[in-house]
Amino acid sequence: MAGDFIITGGRPLSGTVRIPAAKNSVLPLLAATILCSGPVRLRNVPPLADVDTSLRLLRGAGGAACRQGGDVLVERAPTTCRLDAKAAAQMRASILFCAPLLARLGRAETVLPGGCRIGARPVDLHLSGLKALGAQCREEGERLILTAPSGLRGADITLRFPSVGATETLLLAAATAQGSTTLRGAAREPEIADLAAFLCRCGASIRGAGTSTIRVEGRRTLAGCTFAPMADRIVASTYACACAAAGGRVELTGCAPATYAPLLEILAQMGCSVECGPETAVISRFGALHGVGKVFTGVYPALATDAAPLLAAAMLTARSESSIEDVIFERRFACAEGFAAFGGRVETAGRTLHIAPARRLSAAEVRAPDLRGGAALVIAALAAEGTSRVRETGFIDRGYADFARKLGQLGAQITREMRPGA
Hints:
Elements (H helix, E strand, L loop, with lengths): L3 E5 L4 E6 L4 H10 L7 E3 L6 H12 L3 E5 L2 E6 L8 H6 L7 H8 L1 E5 L12 H9 L3 E5 L2 E5 L8 E3 L5 H11 L5 E5 L5 H12 L3 E3 L5 E5 L8 E2 L5 H14 L1 E6 L7 H9 L3 E4 L3 E6 L7 E4 L11 H8 L6 E4 L10 H6 L3 E5 L2 E5 L8 E3 L3 H13 L3 E5 L2 H4 L5 H7 L3 E5 L5
Parallel strand pairs: 2-14, 3-13, 9-10, 17-18, 21-22
Antiparallel strand pairs: 1-22, 1-23, 3-5, 4-5, 6-8, 7-8, 10-12, 11-12, 14-16, 15-16, 18-20, 19-20
Helix pairs in contact: 1-2, 1-7, 4-6, 5-6, 6-7, 8-10, 8-12, 10-12
């Protein structure tokens, strides 16, 4: 969709939000369906722009993939090795589709992937791991061509950084490779464990997912299955920060608070009331917010990099200083310009965003710079006095389904205005 969000701030939020399946789990799961000889049904997949792009990648390579109500059904794996260049360039996660194509067809062709402009996101870890498994890689202009003339073979691989994407790529490659693979220095994010659980449901043999050492025994073929992806801990973090910024009481259901515990702990230090159950978190904020000094993002189980702009938006109205350093991406806080337009007293220094107390936030017209930065500007607008406009909402559609409607159900005054010709 595109268009603008029109938001009148100053209204506290109240109600319940059920958290949908995680974008960061669904995308690698869709890539994994390429390995499956039978149909795959993913349950309750939200209508996100990135999901639509993934379905275009599957269909463009000859697969049969479609939506059926709230589910996604993949009935036939791709039959050609080339990914649609336009779709692949729109989304960084397109690199995940290369390893299963390589494993199934012996070749994969794509363009270097795109995504949000939040800093360098090289694919060298993906490629070096695939080379260790027997792949050959070459670039022809913007095209990336991977081949495995003798098939993929198990290997002992150590990642120099626990990259989520590289860990997912190597899991997908190793699942049907000949022999055993040991992956050391692996990412430990819950989405990794979700991918491994899906692959095991289809017949793979994977041990240690969710730890820094993963062992895979390659299987010749994988079957299909029906699978419910995990809930989206970043979407849950978004609504939690929206409640902290706007005030009120919001109940988040269907997502384990343990998966985004660092963010909830910081909100509690800022003055929010946080009550947690196994699959539920209740966030309340009726008094003033307080700064928490300096916090850092990090690899799981630390504060997620995707949550940093969201938390920063909640900190804008705190009565004392805070700062957030993102150790993953150097341009995570492109939303700082929008924060300043609202009256936020912010300053960026390298990878750190410093936030000083502001008397109040006022309405402004701002532009979403990326997915999470765009959501953070919506959060800031909820706390600002007057009516604001957030442009470039196509970024936000990549990770949030029905964002305006769901915030409206919580009491926010928000509408979407489409531009002529959009």
